[in-house]
From TrEMBL:
<protein>
    <submittedName>
        <fullName>Uncharacterized protein</fullName>
    </submittedName>
</protein>
Amino acid sequence: MTDKKQLEEVYKQNLEDDIINAVSEMKGIDLRKAFDIYYSSRLAEQVEKGGYGIENMDAKYLAEDLIENEPELFE
């Protein structure tokens, strides 16, 4: 039986993957660049730490939030 901690890790990884894919699609950039942008963002830190119910939010919404609130990462 899988424990709750393992399930949370899998869910978090899937959320991160979905955010990276959404950023790539929305901005028309390759996945590697979207990956680098995501992992250098404040959003990545928030997802890692959890809290604020961020783990329950839609990946596309989070990607839009990243694009809107951290435009300097896309320059």
